[in-house]
Amino acid sequence: MKAIIVLLRWIVGTFHKLLNLYPSPEGAHTLFVRCATWPILKPSLIWLFKKCQTPNPSPKPIQIEGLCLEHPFGVAAGFDKNGVLIEILDALGFGFIEVGTVTPNPQIGNPKPRIHKWRKKQIMINAMGFNNDGILAMKKQLSSLPKPLLKKILVSISKNKNSPALLADFGIGCREVWHLCGGITVNLSSPNTQGLRGFQSSEEISAISDCFKKLQDEFGPTALYTEPRTPALFCKLSPDLSDDQLKACLDALRDSAFSGVILTNTTIDLGEFKTTHTGGLSGRPLKEKADRILKLATQHTRGTLFTIGVGGILSQQDASDKFSSGARAIQLYSGLIFKGPGLLWQLTDSAFETERCS
């Protein structure tokens, strides 16, 4: 059994390495999405990815309101913007899946090329600008999935580029997916939508919370459970906030309808890295900054918010550092791009082995 798993993982890893040689990072991702969603190929890929997982006893799931994490290793928003890869990501073995970021209306995003990748330095800069097919397309995708799978889905929602009204756009998005996901993330921290980061304030967070409470009164518990549970509400914050700004946001989140916080998004601080490209930096250089924010948030909130750590996770040690800094769960993004699904399998194998021996 082990030898078969090793062989199948080698096959997947080889395909990933070949895909990474594609000259355009966005083109490589588009090619993967087309292959993974091709009706003729999709069932075989799902079979292959499931066979790559080591048989492990089912861990105790983590429940946050309506969101059910099968285990604490998830995938961040941005990898599956339109919800078309959910079954593939589930087959790979992710414990929870964040899709989006999605906006009320479809939009094409910023001009191409808008993703730049340095493989040896493990650095990515993206300036995507919330390119997505819109909330109705997302709703259609989610409507085709079974309830148990929907429970592990977070839908990341934000505003359209030309919309001045974040609250209105947030409300539209929530209404469409309320009964079709375990949780909702409001993305206030992308650096690629002008003015969006200005909503990272205690006043705006409180207003979003009030909007969510009204939706709770309007829609009631999610239809995914027999017992009353509402979708979990998360907020994704920037690593570029000052300490005082971060603490003000955390205080507002703690005294609101929010269940947790995702730390962090990409950074516009390139540090010593020199490039003419603009956008949000992720990968290796983001780790130190994201970990510092995570530690500060954990100390300030004393664990009262469920914290998901993301940013610069490219190894088992990086993941361990996130948990040591206070994360209750983590998400992969750049690590999935650079290392492939082998990184996820390494993390889950190690975690399950530790649990088995404890």
Short description:
It is built from 13 helices and 13 strands. The chain has helices at 2-20, 25-37, 42-51, 86-92, 135-143, 147-150, 166-177, 202-219, 243-254, 286-301, 316-324, 334-339, 341-357, and strands spanning 62-64, 67-69, 73-75, 96-102, 115-118, 123-126, 153-157, 183-187, 232-237, 260-263, 280-283, 306-310, 329-332. The protein has an 8-stranded parallel barrel with strand order 3-4-7-8-9-10-12-13, surrounded by 6 helices. A 3-stranded antiparallel β-sheet has the order 5-6-11, with no helix packed on it. A two-stranded antiparallel sheet has the order 1-2.
Plain-language structure description:
The model has no long low-confidence stretch (mean pLDDT 93). The two termini are 24 Å apart. This protein has one domain (59-357): Aldolase class I (TIM Barrel), CATH 3.20.20. By secondary structure, the chain is of the alpha/beta class. It contains 13 helices and 13 strands.
